[in-house]
Amino acid sequence: MTPLILAGKVAVITGAGRGIGARTAQRFAQSGAKVAVNYLRNHAAAQAVVRAIADAGGDAIAVQADVRDPDAAAGMVAAVTERLGSPDTLVLNADAGGFRPTPVMGLDFAAYELRLLDEMKAAFTPVKAVLPGMLDKGSGSILAISSALCRAPVPGFSLLSVSKGALEAFVRALAVELGPHGIRVNTIEASMIQDENSSVVDDEQQKELREWIPLRRLGRPDDVAGTATLIASDLAGFVNGASIPVNGGQVLY
User: Fold this and answer.
1) Most buried pick, 43, 55, 138, 164, via CB within 10 A?
2) CATH number of this structure's domain 10-245
3) Domain limits of the chain?
4) What is the pLDDT of residues 205-248, one digit of tens each?
5) According to the UniProt entry, where is the signal peptide (predicted)?
Protein backbone atom coordinates (compact mmCIF):
# COMPACT_ATOMS: atom_id res chain seq x y z
CA MET A 1 0.00 0.00 0.00
CA THR A 2 1.32 3.46 -0.94
CA PRO A 3 2.02 5.65 2.11
CA LEU A 4 -0.36 8.62 2.23
CA ILE A 5 2.42 11.19 2.49
CA LEU A 6 0.36 13.80 0.59
CA ALA A 7 -2.85 13.37 2.58
CA GLY A 8 -4.70 16.67 2.84
CA LYS A 9 -2.80 18.27 -0.07
CA VAL A 10 -4.47 19.87 -3.09
CA ALA A 11 -2.21 19.70 -6.13
CA VAL A 12 -2.34 21.31 -9.56
CA ILE A 13 -0.21 19.57 -12.17
CA THR A 14 0.19 21.40 -15.46
CA GLY A 15 0.48 19.40 -18.65
CA ALA A 16 -0.82 16.29 -16.88
CA GLY A 17 -2.61 14.53 -19.70
CA ARG A 18 0.30 12.26 -20.57
CA GLY A 19 3.79 11.11 -19.68
CA ILE A 20 5.44 12.59 -16.62
CA GLY A 21 2.46 14.79 -15.78
CA ALA A 22 -0.05 11.95 -15.95
CA ARG A 23 2.07 9.60 -13.89
CA THR A 24 2.75 12.33 -11.33
CA ALA A 25 -0.99 12.98 -11.02
CA GLN A 26 -1.58 9.30 -10.37
CA ARG A 27 1.25 9.06 -7.85
CA PHE A 28 0.05 12.14 -5.99
CA ALA A 29 -3.47 10.75 -5.79
CA GLN A 30 -2.19 7.37 -4.60
CA SER A 31 -0.33 9.27 -1.89
CA GLY A 32 -3.49 11.00 -0.66
CA ALA A 33 -3.60 14.30 -2.55
CA LYS A 34 -6.59 15.73 -4.37
CA VAL A 35 -5.34 16.38 -7.88
CA ALA A 36 -6.20 18.80 -10.69
CA VAL A 37 -5.12 17.37 -14.05
CA ASN A 38 -4.44 20.38 -16.25
CA TYR A 39 -4.43 19.98 -20.03
CA LEU A 40 -4.34 22.24 -23.06
CA ARG A 41 -6.11 20.37 -25.89
CA ASN A 42 -6.46 16.64 -25.28
CA HIS A 43 -9.57 16.36 -23.14
CA ALA A 44 -9.85 12.62 -23.67
CA ALA A 45 -6.33 11.98 -22.38
CA ALA A 46 -6.89 14.11 -19.28
CA GLN A 47 -10.19 12.38 -18.57
CA ALA A 48 -8.45 9.02 -18.89
CA VAL A 49 -6.01 10.08 -16.17
CA VAL A 50 -8.89 11.23 -13.96
CA ARG A 51 -10.72 7.93 -14.49
CA ALA A 52 -7.62 5.92 -13.62
CA ILE A 53 -7.26 7.91 -10.40
CA ALA A 54 -10.94 7.48 -9.54
CA ASP A 55 -10.79 3.75 -10.27
CA ALA A 56 -7.92 3.50 -7.78
CA GLY A 57 -9.96 5.33 -5.13
CA GLY A 58 -8.43 8.77 -5.60
CA ASP A 59 -9.91 12.23 -6.07
CA ALA A 60 -9.15 14.18 -9.26
CA ILE A 61 -10.61 16.57 -11.78
CA ALA A 62 -9.54 17.61 -15.29
CA VAL A 63 -9.14 21.35 -15.87
CA GLN A 64 -8.51 22.81 -19.31
CA ALA A 65 -6.33 25.92 -19.43
CA ASP A 66 -3.49 27.39 -21.43
CA VAL A 67 -1.32 28.11 -18.40
CA ARG A 68 0.65 30.70 -20.36
CA ASP A 69 -2.47 32.91 -20.31
CA PRO A 70 -3.04 34.82 -17.03
CA ASP A 71 -6.85 34.77 -17.25
CA ALA A 72 -6.91 31.07 -18.07
CA ALA A 73 -4.52 30.25 -15.22
CA ALA A 74 -6.58 32.31 -12.78
CA GLY A 75 -9.74 30.57 -13.94
CA MET A 76 -8.08 27.19 -13.49
CA VAL A 77 -7.11 27.96 -9.90
CA ALA A 78 -10.60 29.29 -9.16
CA ALA A 79 -12.16 26.09 -10.51
CA VAL A 80 -9.79 23.91 -8.51
CA THR A 81 -10.43 25.91 -5.34
CA GLU A 82 -14.19 25.57 -5.77
CA ARG A 83 -14.12 21.82 -6.38
CA LEU A 84 -11.11 20.54 -4.40
CA GLY A 85 -9.94 23.36 -2.16
CA SER A 86 -7.20 25.96 -2.38
CA PRO A 87 -4.07 24.50 -4.04
CA ASP A 88 -1.03 24.15 -1.81
CA THR A 89 1.05 22.21 -4.35
CA LEU A 90 1.93 23.15 -7.92
CA VAL A 91 3.90 21.02 -10.38
CA LEU A 92 5.13 22.96 -13.42
CA ASN A 93 5.21 20.28 -16.09
CA ALA A 94 3.58 21.97 -19.10
CA ASP A 95 6.15 22.18 -21.87
CA ALA A 96 6.67 24.72 -24.63
CA GLY A 97 6.43 21.79 -27.07
CA GLY A 98 7.38 21.43 -30.71
CA PHE A 99 11.06 20.80 -30.03
CA ARG A 100 13.38 19.16 -32.55
CA PRO A 101 17.18 18.92 -32.17
CA THR A 102 18.72 21.69 -34.27
CA PRO A 103 22.34 22.91 -34.47
CA VAL A 104 22.93 26.53 -33.48
CA MET A 105 23.79 27.40 -37.08
CA GLY A 106 20.30 26.29 -38.07
CA LEU A 107 18.60 28.65 -35.60
CA ASP A 108 17.92 32.34 -35.43
CA PHE A 109 17.37 34.45 -32.34
CA ALA A 110 13.60 34.35 -32.81
CA ALA A 111 13.67 30.62 -32.02
CA TYR A 112 15.34 31.30 -28.66
CA GLU A 113 13.00 34.20 -27.98
CA LEU A 114 9.89 32.10 -28.62
CA ARG A 115 11.14 29.13 -26.59
CA LEU A 116 12.19 31.30 -23.64
CA LEU A 117 8.91 33.22 -23.63
CA ASP A 118 6.81 30.06 -23.73
CA GLU A 119 8.90 28.34 -21.05
CA MET A 120 8.75 31.29 -18.68
CA LYS A 121 5.06 32.03 -19.29
CA ALA A 122 4.21 28.39 -18.55
CA ALA A 123 5.98 28.76 -15.19
CA PHE A 124 5.43 32.38 -14.15
CA THR A 125 1.71 32.56 -14.92
CA PRO A 126 0.47 29.55 -12.90
CA VAL A 127 2.83 30.49 -10.05
CA LYS A 128 1.22 33.94 -9.89
CA ALA A 129 -2.22 32.31 -9.92
CA VAL A 130 -1.59 29.96 -6.97
CA LEU A 131 0.52 32.28 -4.82
CA PRO A 132 -2.29 34.25 -3.14
CA GLY A 133 -3.75 31.05 -1.68
CA MET A 134 -0.37 29.72 -0.61
CA LEU A 135 0.54 33.04 1.01
CA ASP A 136 -2.75 33.01 2.91
CA LYS A 137 -1.98 29.52 4.20
CA GLY A 138 1.64 30.34 4.97
CA SER A 139 2.75 27.15 3.26
CA GLY A 140 3.09 25.53 -0.14
CA SER A 141 5.29 23.59 -2.52
CA ILE A 142 6.13 24.49 -6.11
CA LEU A 143 8.06 21.99 -8.20
CA ALA A 144 9.33 22.60 -11.73
CA ILE A 145 10.22 19.78 -14.12
CA SER A 146 13.46 20.66 -15.85
CA SER A 147 16.15 18.84 -17.83
CA ALA A 148 19.68 17.60 -17.22
CA LEU A 149 20.51 19.38 -20.48
CA CYS A 150 20.62 22.74 -18.70
CA ARG A 151 23.64 21.45 -16.77
CA ALA A 152 25.14 19.12 -19.36
CA PRO A 153 24.27 20.37 -22.87
CA VAL A 154 24.67 18.19 -25.95
CA PRO A 155 24.89 19.30 -29.59
CA GLY A 156 21.58 20.23 -31.16
CA PHE A 157 19.78 20.87 -27.88
CA SER A 158 20.76 24.47 -27.15
CA LEU A 159 17.15 25.71 -27.23
CA LEU A 160 16.21 23.29 -24.48
CA SER A 161 19.40 23.94 -22.50
CA VAL A 162 18.84 27.70 -22.52
CA SER A 163 15.11 27.65 -21.73
CA LYS A 164 15.46 25.16 -18.87
CA GLY A 165 18.41 27.14 -17.53
CA ALA A 166 16.15 30.19 -17.34
CA LEU A 167 13.47 28.11 -15.62
CA GLU A 168 15.93 26.96 -12.97
CA ALA A 169 17.14 30.50 -12.35
CA PHE A 170 13.51 31.49 -11.80
CA VAL A 171 13.05 28.63 -9.34
CA ARG A 172 16.09 29.66 -7.30
CA ALA A 173 14.88 33.26 -7.18
CA LEU A 174 11.44 32.11 -6.02
CA ALA A 175 12.96 29.85 -3.37
CA VAL A 176 14.75 32.81 -1.80
CA GLU A 177 11.76 35.15 -2.05
CA LEU A 178 9.03 32.74 -0.98
CA GLY A 179 10.89 30.71 1.61
CA PRO A 180 10.18 33.20 4.42
CA HIS A 181 6.47 32.68 3.68
CA GLY A 182 6.70 28.92 4.17
CA ILE A 183 6.62 28.14 0.44
CA ARG A 184 9.26 25.75 -0.90
CA VAL A 185 10.32 25.90 -4.57
CA ASN A 186 12.42 23.17 -6.17
CA THR A 187 13.36 21.63 -9.50
CA ILE A 188 13.65 18.10 -10.79
CA GLU A 189 16.35 17.79 -13.46
CA ALA A 190 15.35 14.75 -15.51
CA SER A 191 17.42 13.05 -18.16
CA MET A 192 15.77 11.73 -21.31
CA ILE A 193 12.52 10.00 -20.38
CA GLN A 194 11.43 6.97 -22.39
CA ASP A 195 8.34 7.66 -24.54
CA GLU A 196 8.09 11.22 -23.15
CA ASN A 197 10.76 12.99 -25.17
CA SER A 198 12.87 10.16 -26.55
CA SER A 199 11.13 10.23 -29.94
CA VAL A 200 13.23 13.22 -31.01
CA VAL A 201 16.42 11.14 -30.72
CA ASP A 202 17.19 8.26 -33.09
CA ASP A 203 17.72 4.68 -31.90
CA GLU A 204 21.51 4.81 -32.20
CA GLN A 205 21.76 7.94 -30.07
CA GLN A 206 19.45 6.39 -27.50
CA LYS A 207 21.69 3.32 -27.37
CA GLU A 208 24.76 5.51 -26.82
CA LEU A 209 22.95 7.39 -24.05
CA ARG A 210 22.00 4.15 -22.28
CA GLU A 211 25.65 3.09 -22.33
CA TRP A 212 26.65 6.46 -20.89
CA ILE A 213 24.16 6.34 -18.00
CA PRO A 214 25.50 4.22 -15.11
CA LEU A 215 22.12 2.54 -14.60
CA ARG A 216 22.17 1.56 -18.30
CA ARG A 217 18.62 2.63 -19.12
CA LEU A 218 16.60 5.70 -19.97
CA GLY A 219 14.37 7.26 -17.36
CA ARG A 220 10.68 6.44 -17.04
CA PRO A 221 7.81 8.78 -16.14
CA ASP A 222 7.46 6.95 -12.83
CA ASP A 223 11.07 7.78 -11.92
CA VAL A 224 10.22 11.48 -12.03
CA ALA A 225 6.77 11.02 -10.48
CA GLY A 226 8.14 9.17 -7.47
CA THR A 227 10.73 11.85 -6.78
CA ALA A 228 8.12 14.59 -7.24
CA THR A 229 5.87 12.90 -4.69
CA LEU A 230 8.62 12.82 -2.09
CA ILE A 231 9.72 16.43 -2.69
CA ALA A 232 6.13 17.70 -2.55
CA SER A 233 5.56 15.99 0.78
CA ASP A 234 6.37 17.26 4.26
CA LEU A 235 9.08 14.60 4.44
CA ALA A 236 11.11 17.03 2.31
CA GLY A 237 10.05 20.03 4.38
CA PHE A 238 13.59 21.48 4.58
CA VAL A 239 14.37 21.06 0.87
CA ASN A 240 14.18 24.44 -0.85
CA GLY A 241 15.88 25.92 -3.90
CA ALA A 242 17.27 22.53 -4.87
CA SER A 243 17.79 20.96 -8.28
CA ILE A 244 17.21 17.26 -7.74
CA PRO A 245 18.82 15.03 -10.39
CA VAL A 246 16.73 12.17 -11.75
CA ASN A 247 19.12 10.94 -14.38
CA GLY A 248 20.50 7.54 -13.39
CA GLY A 249 23.92 9.08 -12.77
CA GLN A 250 24.20 10.67 -16.22
CA VAL A 251 25.22 13.99 -14.63
CA LEU A 252 26.95 13.91 -11.25
CA TYR A 253 27.10 16.99 -9.03
Assistant:
1) 164
2) 3.40.50.720
3) 10-245
4) 778 878 888 888 888 999 999 999 999 999 999 999 999 999 88
5) none
